[in-house]
Design a protein that fits this description.
Low-confidence stretches: none
Structural class: alpha/beta
Radius of gyration: 18 Å
Distance between the termini: 44 Å
Largest sheet: 7 strands, parallel
Number of helices: 8
Oligomer: single chain
Helix content: 40-55%
Number of strands: 7
Length: 254
């Protein structure tokens, strides 16, 4: 049997590639054989990652993108096509959060989260589909969250945008199915990174971990299998699907 997870000959673009998870996703896709466009606002933060992937035998290209700017998105996809070929796989990973009580959240705070997490994801999906449709299709993986389905305190904008991203996944999957474009979502639970390590070492963080049925945080590597499934032909008959990887957290006792 051929390797269904082999991405050789494919071009993948990962937004938010300067972040911990975005960089990890890029490494996973490159290891599977894809040529990877590393997309973020500041390309200087991507050069070392591009060099790392290239030194390991992969192919990577750093490209500037501001997902809140339609012209920047179009330019990023055009530059990627010129450097690596048209995009076959989009990992819609850019995201920000504003942590504050709802009554303290300014209009600008709310709007900035919506414009990156939801509007930005739509802009990138549109740009990707414009390249994919003439080439017989492609794959879009939207990075959602377990907060798409349940909420925690003081992140109303983030939770709302991630819920919207899931519904957008369903809508685009339906609309683009006959164009050969599959649109699915990956919804991680709490993943251990350098950024959140101090919180999860605190009493509040430890209490949260105890509410996860597996009693542990996820590691970035726990997302490798779901990511490769959705990005590859292994999921050829899946579109509009959402995969959670959360240690059972969504099913914990209320």
């Amino acid at each position: 049997m051929s390797n269904l997870f082999d991405l050789t000959g494919k071009t993948a673009l990962v937004t938010g590639a300067s972040g911990v998870l975005g960089a990890h996703f890029a490494r996973v896709l490159a290891t599977a054989g894809a040529a990877v466009a590393l997309a973020a606002r500041r390309t200087d933060r991507l050069e070392s990652l591009a060099e790392e992937i290239t030194s390991a035998g992969g192919k990577a290209f750093a490209v500037s993108i501001d997902v809140t700017d339609a012209a920047s998105v179009e330019a990023a996809f055009a530059n990627t096509a010129a450097a690596l070929g048209p995009v076959d796989i989009l990992i819609n990973n850019s995201g920000i959060a504003q942590t504050a009580p709802a009554l303290s959240l300014s209009d600008d705070d709310w709007t900035s989260v919506v414009d990156v997490n939801l509007n930005g994801a739509f802009r990138c999906a549109q740009a990707a589909a414009r390249q994919m449709k003439p080439n017989g299709g492609g794959v879009i993986v939207n990075i959602a969250s377990i907060l798409s389905f349940r909420v925690t305190a003081q992140v109303p904008a983030y939770a709302a945008t991630k819920a919207g991203l899931v519904q957008m996944t369903h809508a685009l999957a339906l609309e683009w199915a006959r164009d050969g474009i599959r649109v699915n979502a990956l919804a991680p639970g709490y993943i251990a990174t350098d950024i959140n390590s101090d919180f999860f070492a605190s009493p509040a963080g430890e209490a949260m971990i105890k509410r996860i049925p597996q009693r542990r945080l996820g590691q970035p590597s726990d997302l490798d299998g779901p990511l490769l499934l959705l990005a590859s032909e292994a999921s050829a008959y899946m579109t509009g699907s959402v995969i959670t990887a959360d240690g059972g957290h969504l099913h914990s006792t209320l």
